[in-house]
Each structure stands twice: as C-alpha cells, then as structure tokens.
Write the structure tokens for this entry.
Amino acid sequence: MKLRILILLNILFLLDVQLTAQSKICVSFYNQENLFDTLDTPNKDDSEFLPQGTYAWNSEKYYNKLANMSSVISQINQGKGPDFLGMCEVENDLVVGDLTKTLGKKGLTYQYIWHDSKDERGIDNALLYKKEHVNSVQSRLFDINPDSIGGSITRGLLMADFTLKNQSRLVIFVNHWPSRRGGEKESEPKRIYVAKYLKHLCDSIQKKDPKVHIVLMGDFNDHPDNISISEHLKAKESVKSVTKNDFYNPMFQLVKEGKGSYNHRGNWNFLDQFILNQNLVKGKSKLSYVDQSAQAFKEEWMLETEEKYKGNPKRTFGGKKYLNGYSDHLPIYMYLQLN
C-alpha cells in the first residue's frame, strides 16, 4: 500500500513539473546584424551586400550567416529555441523565410511575420513564433513619419497582436529605433519622437482593452536610463513604481550587475531590451512575467577570442575582414508564465 502511494506521488510530482514547464513561454529578441541576401533590391541601398560590393557578399557567406544565426537561436530556451523571437536588421521576407527553413532543419518549426518598411538600407523588423502557442494573430507596421525625425527614412514599428491558447491577449511591438549616427545627443530627438509615438499607440490599445498584455522588444539604440525610455516611454526600474500605463524595464537591474547585450569600448549595456506593461508584472493575470528571467544569452563560442576584442560578440565582419561570426549584439530572452 505504501509503495503504491509513493509511486502515485512520484507520478503526480513529475506531471506537475511537466505542466509547469509547458505553461511557460520563452520570448527572445536578436539583432541579426545585416542579414542580407545576395540580390540587388530596387530602391534599397544594399550595394555593400552584393557580390561586387564592399563585403563581397556571396552565396557561401549568406548560407554561413543563416547557419550561424540559426545555431544561436536554436540554443536559446535550453536548446528548444524561443517560442517568440523578434528580430531586426533583416533585409526582406526572403531572408526571413530562408532563416525559418534553416531552423526547420534543426527541428524548430516557426511561422513568421514581416512587413516591408521604408528604411533606406532595407533593414526591417520581423517576428518568428511557434504556432502551438497561438490561437490567432493579426499584424501591421506603423511607419515613422520622416518629417518628424529630420527627414530620415527609417524602419517602422512592427506590431503582432496574438490570442494565445489560454485566451490571453499578447501584443508585441518589435522595435529598431534610429541609430546614434552623427552623435548620441544630436540623434536623440529622433528616438524621443519614436518613443512618444510608441507610447501613444500603447496607451490607445490599453484604453480599449485594460486587460491586454504588452511586450516592447528590440534594439532601441538607447540605454534603459536614457530619457527616451525612462521618461517618454515611462519604463520604470522597479515594479513597485509601475502604475497605470507605465512600463517595467527588467534591464535596469542587469546593467547594475555589469551585464549587457552590446559592448562599446569595453562597457556592457543594453541597447536590446524588454519593456513590459503593468498587467505582466502586477496583479493576477492570465499571463505574467517570470521575475528575474530576463537575460542576455551568451556562450563562449559566440564570442571573440582575439586579444584586442576578446569576450565581445563575434560579428560577421570586423571592419572589412570576414570573421564568419554571428552578430555584434547578443540575443536577449525572458519567460512569461501562462496562468
């Protein structure tokens, strides 16, 4: 009798562990650093990434890039690949489709969302997701008015509006804000404008649906303490500080720990961030952020070994030298709990 009870308890314990694992979803973001095909796209400045261009970009390098990026992506989430993956710096749906096929060869099946943006170089945002977590999805791209950011034509804000299997609503915005080219302070008004526009979109969504869960992810080209994020997006360092229509930024704490997704002159920080609305971090909800789960994904094989740049993310090119690496950014990931 005692043996039967012990066996039953073990079965219940294992079942509970399995259900707990299945009730978490992994969300990730990864800057692909110039994932270009080898073809000349009309009306896009992709000349550097052509066979006759600066980087002598050819089929061998392109397929190496796909293999390298898929190797990283497949190792996130304990070797199972993320359930949702936001990306930036992808040229078009062809490269997103090829990356999805490459991941498929590793046993990872993804659907993808991509909208052509007006970016002058043709580097867009995209989102991969595993269909088994999703009942339905709608998506659209919100373009950035170039007249509002000094005439620059930049990528828009990619929005994916999911209904998950537990009937919770998850809205994801994939971002790649204007770069710091020309100087951080000089370019800051562009990022502030995009922050205000994104905040307006989120406020409108939350006004219509107070129960919605919102994740802002991407390469913001600003750090957590820059005013575009801390003041205009109202992304707070502490969950306690988050009130209605505010956001929580878990990357604040990681910066204090000396971590980062990007290394500039020996200093780690987070240009790549997750920013979460109140429903994900406060109160009882069908979907919630798993506390302290946000991290940069970093493995030794992804890093430079040469002494001068040792420990930095190993990128595809160092200057014009082909390194056959991954990206100049590390991917970030976190977990959400399905309740």
User: Anything to note?
Assistant: The radius of gyration is 20 Å. The chain has one domain: 24-338. Residues 5-21 have pLDDT under 50 and may be disordered. The chain is about 25% helix and 25% strand.
